[in-house]
Amino acid sequence: MPELPEVEVVRRGLVSWVRGRTITGVEVLDPRSIRRHALGVEDFIGNLEGATVADVVRRGKFLWMPLVDTAGGGRAADAPESPRPKVALMAHLGMSGQLLMQDREVPDEKHLKVRFRLSPRDAMPAQLRFVDQRIFGGLFVTAMVPTDDGGPGGLAESPLPLIAEEASHIARDPLDPAFSFDLFYRRLRRRRTGLKRALLDQGLVSGIGNIYADEALWRAKLHYARATDTLRRAEAERVLASARDVMLDALAAGGTSFDSLYVNVNGASGYFDRSLNAYGRAGQACKRCADVGIQASIRREQFMNRSSHTCPVCQPRPRNGRW
DNA sequence: CATTCGTCCTGATAGC
DNA sequence: TGCTATCAGGACGAAT
Fold first, then answer.
1. Is A172 within 8 Å of A180 (Cβ atoms)?
2. Dist CA A208 CA A199 (whole Å)
3. A61 belongs to the catalytic site
4. Residue A142 three-state SS
5. What are the residues whose beta carbons fall under 8 Å from the beta carbon of A49, sequence distance 6 or more?
6. Is the shortest CB-to-strand distance from A196 to strand C under 7 Å?
7. Long-range contacts of A65-69 (CB under 8 A, 24+ apart)
8. Is the CB of residue A219 inside 7 Å of nucleic acid strand C?
């Protein structure tokens, strides 16, 4: 389940393989993976063929490649005076999406949805492939529009003062150097909802999915139903710091096990085996309570049509939403 | 306006 | 064995 750390691992892996290369061919094997592209698959392909990838950037879980025309003899994107990108190839990995660099000899993956052929470069793989079993993810082309908030952020190496239009409603993530806690806290307090709902709202704070929401709440000793409009500043700081910490841990784990030749979303899988304290641990002991000699087991409940994992002892359900 | 809920999708697994 | 039911969940758009 790619959340922020996994998407960032993919971005870092992808950038050195695709930046400056030209898309020479696009093959859409399953049109369902071309989402939100109103003008259809033919237009999608037409926008991409002949364009050069200028960068790979991210906002929250949205990942995109700004594209520049390859006019006048194929000048590379990183050449001086390179033109500003007008459009970008946008990707969202959804639940099961992968972006893979593959040599042309490698047989098609079972769930291969889209194949991009790239201009040759040294010994680099010739193809970028989008593989997606459950089709919650997708690709589309979107306009690059000006932004006054300093660019995409999301740990991008060279943020442009432009953002992909379809990601402009997404808030910054907790790892983004330009993330504003004050803005987050002001908006959080204005809401009348539960804390986990707010954490999962990508327009308020991005990059957090079901797994890291449960982990951040566990670390912060807060319950998912805690009312946002009474949340104290210290509590909000605690849950944000927890989210940041758990995602940094996952990012570090993903980074170390990441094979740069094989860009995928499983880079952080080792992390899940060892380091989760709440998610997926229903019925098992709460490690923090066990450390102080208390017996408590993680409880799984349905909330928002997904499962939520809490320790009933150290994350007690709030009364009246307050505490 | 803000908030919540239904929908998209496939494969693994449980139960009969 | 082989069928059906259930579960997993990100994000959008419809409904409230």
1. yes
2. 7
3. yes
4. strand
5. A23, A24, A25, A26
6. no
7. A65/A18, A65/A89, A65/A91, A66/A144, A66/A160, A66/A162, A66/A164, A67/A23
8. no
**Is residue A52 within 8 Å of residue A85, measured between CB atoms?**
no
Which nucleotide has the least CA–C1' distance to A198? B3
Give catalytic status of residue A2 as yes or no.
Answer: yes
Helix (H) or strand (E) holding A206, with range, is none
Continuous segment of H or E residues that includes residue A136: none
3-state SS class at A131: strand
Measure the CA–CA gap between A161 and A152, rounded to whole angstroms.
Answer: 8
Beta bridge partners, A150, equal: none
Q: Which of A3, A6, A166, A215 is catalytic?
A: A3
Query: For residue A63, which of A103, A3, A111 has the smallest C-alpha distance?
Result: A3
Closest nucleotide (C1' vs CA) to A306 is C9
Name the nucleotide nearest A167; use CA and C1': C11
A141-159 confidence digits (pLDDT tens): 999 998 866 667 665 555 5
Domains detected in chain A: 4-167 (3.20.190.10), 181-321 (1.10.8.50)
Residues listed for chain A: 323
Q: What is the rounded distance in angstroms from the CA atom of residue A313 to the CA atom of residue A190?
A: 29
Question: What are A205-263's pLDDT values in tens digits?
Answer: 999 999 999 999 999 999 999 999 999 999 999 999 999 999 998 888 775 443 333 34
Rounded CA–C1' distance between A211 and C6, in angstroms: 20
Out of A11, A58, A61, A288, pick the active-site residue: A61
Residue A147 per-residue DSSP state: -
**Per-residue pLDDT tens over the stretch A76-99:** 555 556 688 999 999 999 988 889
**Nearest protein residue to the C1' atom of C12, measured from CA:** A36
Whether CB of A307 is under 7 Å from strand C: the answer is: yes
Any atom of strand C under 7 A from CB of A166? yes
Q: Are A209 and A200 within 8 A, CB to CB?
A: yes
- Which of residues 186-205 of A have CB within 7 Å of strand B? 190-194, 197
pTM of this structure = 0.90
| Nearest nucleotide by C1' position to the A305 CA atom | C9
